[in-house]
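User: Round two. Same drill as before: sequence, then structure, for each protein.

Assistant: Same drill it is. First protein:
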Amino acid sequence: MKNKLILGCFITALTIGFFVVAAAKDKKDKKGSVMSDKVVKTDAEWKKILNPEQYEVLREKGTERPFTGKYYKSKEKGKYVCAACGLELFLSDGKFDSGCGWPSFSQPADPKHVASREDNSFGMHRVEVYCPRCGGHLGHVFEDGPAPTGLRYCINSASLKFIPDEAKKK
């Protein structure tokens, strides 16, 4: 009788373990499906859909001259999306005039929509920000922005496309 009870408990534990592992694998697969949303193109394909300035900024980590970008002075209400893949990056509510010469934002529209990595190019230590969907270079983030985040996302206009609020369109 005791052996049957132990065997029953063992089988129950094994069954529960199987379902826990299956559920964890299912979660991992669902999380992995987000990765399948990545946009991957060859250089030739990017050159077909981006203009030369966008290609230089987004694909070659270039930068536009300060005070020249299309969205530098824009005060329109709406959202800014990645010019390469359309991922929503920033909202106009977070845009501010930092005086740096590029559009500046205090925070992304969604923290998962802007990725960052160290950038030690040109003998400087900075933090590059890029689109996590297509890998396009956006600009840099600095810790001298306004409250509440204290961050300044300094973004190239060439890496953005502006979509006005619906109310404005009507």
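Second protein:
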Amino acid sequence: MFHSAITSSAKSQTGEMAALLDMLAHASTRPRYAFMVLSLIAEVANADGEAGPFVKRDRQMHTLRDWLCDSLAPMGGRDPRRIALAARVEADLTATGALPKDSRQSAAMVERELRDRIRASGKTNLSRAVSELVAAGLLRRYYAGYAVDHPNRGGQRNAVYVLQGLARCLLPRHNAPRAAAITPKPLQGELRLF
């Protein structure tokens, strides 16, 4: 009864973040996931909005795509499919006889294999989300690294993502002047005590 339609004039009165969320809602099949991807890219991007090809975390270098997949992996930790995958990984390792007898070593091996499988499927989800963001004009993708003669675009190169358009509102605003940093000039005849 009191519902009102959201019009384009309402969008023009909102801020950059609200406009970005509106754009993601229309451009992406999974807008929340796409927003998390953009936020993580903005977290490691330089002042120009460029992230990759490598990210340094915990004194280790990771490719940007691996780091994004690992960072997004905990979001599905309670998903029943994730729990079933862990049981399937343990059953597969037990069936091949690769699982050690020591419980700590076997748990670590299951965790590594689970992480590798999640990372492989996560890269598919990430590529799909990035392709939607590129099509929406929020992201630019290119590849950097050593390019060898290779039939596909991989060829020992790694992805670099550059935030564009409305997505740049996610970048930290380091260059904005702060009110506390600006000191007022003394008036003529005023004696300042230090």
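The chain has six helices and five strands.

User: Perfect.
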